[in-house]
Amino acid sequence: MATVGIRLRDPSLLVRKNYVDGQWVDSASGATFNVYDPATGSHLGTCPESTVEDAEKAITAAAKAFPSWRSRSGRERARILRRWYDLLLENKDDLATIITHENGKSKADATGEVGFAAGFLEWFSEEAARIYGDVIPHSSSSFRVQVTKEPVGVCGMITPWNFPAAMITRKLGPALAAGCTAVVKTPGETPFSANALAVLAERAGVPKGVINIVAALDNTPQIGELLCKSNIIRKISFTGSTRVGRLLMAQSSSTIKKLSLELGGNAPFIVFDDADINLAIKEAVVAKFKSSGQTCVCANRIYLQKGIYDQFVKGLVKAVGSFKVGSGHAADTTHGPLIGPNAVSKVSGLVEDAVSKGATVLCGGKTIPALGPNFFEPTVLTNVNCDMLIANEEIFGPVATIFPFTTEEEVIDAANNTDVGLASYFFTQDVCRATRVAEQLQSGMVALNSGVVSDWGTPFGGVKQSGLGREGSKYGIEDYLQLKTFITGNVPVIHRANI
């Protein structure tokens, strides 16, 4: 099988191996899996098909590195993270090229992701030296109480393909800042981005064993189960589907470990009659079609109050019609392919189900064979109702579904009628309505007059079956720390007059 080269300024960033205990190694089994460019179908190379044995070696290496790493001061760890941040920015073009090749997103989108990924390292470099404890007054005057925060230990991380760089740093940034070490299981679709980050981490001074990376495609379930059931791993951080999150949570129960689960969403996007319509359309394009709709916070259900319904729909269709779909390598591409055939099949099936039940296709609705098997037209559907699969499942593709509504109470009930609650968006100029709606939406993140919820300094996560814990922000580092209460008893009490 011919392999297409990925042309980089620094070819050493492209590594097709595992990273264990500071060494680039093959799987003990010798097996590999293939990695393809979803836009062109080109073969990009192979990575080790890691086994449980490989993952156990990575866990052992992380455990060995933990005592030394946790003993460093927060300021020492901060300096290393800051150097890592600088190196990401210095190599952003190469990193973006790797992301575009293996993920498919446009080069502009990939470049933006590199900046996003770097930002987590900068943010947590600033938090590493600010892990504060407390002094607590005891009920007895002869006792003293101190509360300290300690790193939880070795962490197992399972990362997704849709943000192959940013989801690595959003987890490793706080983990390393807190003093933890890690074993990262990378996605089979996009292993090279994580490896490039590991090369730069090593250059930044991250000691061997602190970060360990194992790749796998077919063996992913076995490695995930090992991470969950290992007594050495004290925390699991997972970004992915709710279905897999439930499984990992069950598998972790036998070892009672900390869990951060950033799972699926079904985000409502609500536009009231008094909204700035042009702003709402612009932000809907961002919230729905970023990365070709392949994000967990994408607007899944767009609710339009009847007074602005026609105007909004007309504007959205016009905006979607201006998209340039194609290979992410082309300079004018705005939207790339879906990640693979299974993703295309799912999106096609959801659209077909909706149309069969009465939905109207205003634009798009089909695959684009001329571009390749993984391309799907950006799509707008109206006459959608809650009996359609597309209203109840996370689409993860470039399909906007439109629902009309009349009253505030009606749309709040509709928006909350789901088992998940990751992100919600709504648009209004009424400050009283803004307060009411924000308080009533059942989501971990609510955006008013914006289609963006992610930032390094804001907590990212959901409620209900969208997960547990938060990533990013000062709260994100708390998930990698545990409290220790230190009680000193029977301190002699000396009564002395104040002078």
UniProtKB/TrEMBL annotation:
InterPro entries tied to this protein: Ald_DH/histidinol_DH, Ald_DH_C, Ald_DH_CS_CYS, Ald_DH_CS_GLU, Ald_DH_N, Aldehyde_DH_dom, Aldehyde_DH_Superfamily, Succ_semiAld_DH
Recorded catalytic activity of this chain's protein: succinate semialdehyde + NADP(+) + H2O = succinate + NADPH + 2 H(+); succinate semialdehyde + NAD(+) + H2O = succinate + NADH + 2 H(+)
GO biological process: carboxylic acid biosynthetic process; gamma-aminobutyric acid catabolic process
Active site, per annotation: 262
EC number annotated for this UniProt entry: 1.2.1.16
Pathway: Amino-acid degradation; 4-aminobutanoate degradation
CC per GO annotation: cytoplasm
Keyword Oxidoreductase assigned: yes
Alphabetized GO MF terms: aldehyde dehydrogenase [NAD(P)+] activity; succinate-semialdehyde dehydrogenase (NAD+) activity
Keywords: Oxidoreductase
NCBIfam families linked to this entry: SSADH
Name the record gives this protein: Succinate-semialdehyde dehydrogenase
